Amino acid sequence: MKLSQRIQNLKPSAGFELLKKAKEMKAQGEDVISLAIGELQGKTYQPIRRAGQNAIEEGYTKYSPSAGREDLRKELAKTAQNQWNFPISSENVFVANGCKYVLYIVFQSLCEKGDEVILPSPYWMSYTPLISLSGAHIKILATKEENNFKVTADELKQSLQTNSKIFLLNSPNNPTSAVYTEKELKSLGKILMQHPEVIILVDAIYDRLVYSGKFAPHLLQVCPELKDRLLALNGASKNYLMTGWRLGWLFGPTKLVKVFSDFQSQAAGCANSIAQKAFATAFQDCEEDIAQTIKELKKVKELLINSLKEIPKLILYPSEGAFYLWVGVKNFIGKNYKGQTLKSSRDIMEKLLKDKKLICICGEEFGRPNYLRLSYVTTPSHIQKAGKRLQEFFLELR
Ligand code: PLP
Which of 126, 179, 250, 373 to mutate to test the pocket of ligand 1 (most atoms within 8 A of CB)? Predict the structure, then answer.
């Protein structure tokens, strides 16, 4: 059977592959620790779980409008309006089955061959296949280590071309956990104001998981003038521990919301109605839960950092949001491990998995070799164990 060229070029998600691997190893009784997964371990917060049960009992199990349930769109618009301090209506909100699917719809609706999407690296690994499926060309903008992997105004200016269709910004960032400040966003906004043809896609799916303040600053908040061509993406997966419910949304101009809804009406019908009803009813009631999650994440993050500080020449970057620690391993490339030369961060990832039963993701997957991403969504005791294994491994290198 001949598959389409599109599909032949598509690789499965590395994150999901590693998740499968960790599960298989655990099932075989191996003492494996996974720092690979981008998913908090706790249950969805209780108010939302309850609302979900009620939604099923009360019969919210039918199709909903293709743009999303009106009650949810209203709640999301109200919250965004309070957060960003300018008028947002429910007509500006589009809801779908997870951010991944929102991204798919956005690229399918806006991009084609000849268009360019500017993607800062390191980047979340699903962006590239999702953009490629639309036929658009990906222009990687390699951010600099000394800027904590954030795009500067100058770099953005240099990378914008006549065929630039979309600029994609992700803050808090996966994989670096860097969070753009208001000042940094303002300077990017100034450049974008000079390019009215460019659509700006901001992925803020980790915006409640920040270690200072209540929300991560947003480009739309500091530069509301961009609102007619800015798509502000968000979702329930990370902030509300709802990965399996599949709920994502964006704020954007009404014209585009209509385009995306029409696409969805054909391609999926609508987002999961139960998830929408549950979230609309209860997401405002989860503030204490979110605060508790951040408190726990902070603790685990500190434990991991303290144990990695014991490894000379391992480079640690600030983890300001989300739940990742981005570490530089360039000083270990070329070193000898049990008679073998480590040629790349992928080599390091594979040896850690094989010999230390520790799963993490190498920088190559995020478009930047010489780094590892460690996800600290685990218990303090597991993170201490993981830290020890990492110490043992790096201290064994000659
Ligand atoms: N955007 C970023 C930056 C992510 O890290 C992820 C998941 O890892 C997503 C989007 C996907 O979120 P969803 O579960 O809503 O599809």
Answer: 126
